[in-house]
Amino acid sequence: MRTSINVISIGEEQSLILSKLKTIFLASGATLMAISMIILPEQTFGASVRGLKIWWETVFPSLFPFFVISELLIGFGVVKFIGVILEPLMRPLFRVPGVGGFAWAMGMASGNPAGAKITARLRQEKQLSKIEAERLVSFTNYSSPLFIFVAVSVGFFHDKNLGILFAIAHYLGNFFVGIIMRFYGYSRYERMTAKKRKFPIWEAIRALHKTRIEDKRPIGKLLGDAVTSSIHTLLMIGGFIILFSVMNRLLYHLHITALLASVIEHFFAILHFPKLLSIPFISGLFEITIGSDLISRVKESTLFQQAILTSFILGFGGFSIQAQVASILAQTDIRFKPFFIARIFHGIFAAVITIFIWEPVYIKLRETFNPSVTLPVFGQDQQGILEYLYHLSVQLGPLITITSLIIYILIYQRSLFSNQKK
Prior knowledge:
This protein is mostly helical. The chain has one domain. Helices cover 82% and strands 0% of the residues. It contains 18 helices and no strands. The longest helix is centred in the last third of the chain and has 46 residues. It starts with a helix and ends with a helix.
């Protein structure tokens, strides 16, 4: 008895020590950041503006429509309908319910962190168990096709063919993550209760109708809630983007990035990568947009090396996106740790796939569509279209953002007025 009491007390003491060390670390980090902002006000302001610009011009306009539509589809029962139809595919492949197919498709189309947002929403609706939600969120967060093809490939590398390479590596890598995560938390009970069932179309329609009837909110209320919820999430995302933009800049000026890069340099030396890639890589671990841009500017490295590192950080997602996902998951009982481990796997898979498909995909595409060699007019036209889309999105982004925020303010004001009348 005494031995067990001693073991428990030692365990509790170790836990208390770790908790105190965590508190000291967090407090020290926050204090250091505050002092750095005071010492480096210009750099802080510049990084804040850059983060705000990314959110204002790109993130909000690209995610807002998908968030609202997903909320409406869940409320109208369409997601339940899709879940019944896709159950025979998603259950044996990833061991998640068919509704996971909706999160998978929407996450792929709209980009980070839409997959986490939809997964959390489905968990709140009790359409997923805790383990199923943790499996699903691990492979439904992607960089959007618009970001990969337009911002990274054309905007940073000025090479549209790289977009196809990055997309194959990114999406295929996340598919492999989903296959691996199907074994996460798989119990004997789940294996025994799993049933092979057929899902006729009328059962899907019945589920759709039942879901719509159970949600007793009128269409106007449903639409208002969808807009409000989506903008709440996007405001949170904007805050994280600005915060990590500032952190990235301050860490660089405090030479902490260089210190971390000095550790990475030894690993890069083994891979015969130039040391100058280490700082852009560390920056990419914090924020993928900044990292991808900096990697593309390192002239001392080959395009092959740049592509491998860019694929890794696109898969890893960056601490900025991971913080956004952690904040969304905190509203549920879904744990963040499986998602974080999955991001490491995704980065590794994407980098390895890039190595294997470099010759058969990118080199072949470049030989076929090289603007300066084979088809100059066609290549230049394609490049021009993507650049036009990029500039168009930048021009229309602020207009979409400010219009959406005005609508949100009106809906929120109306909601407050209705509550006061009651």
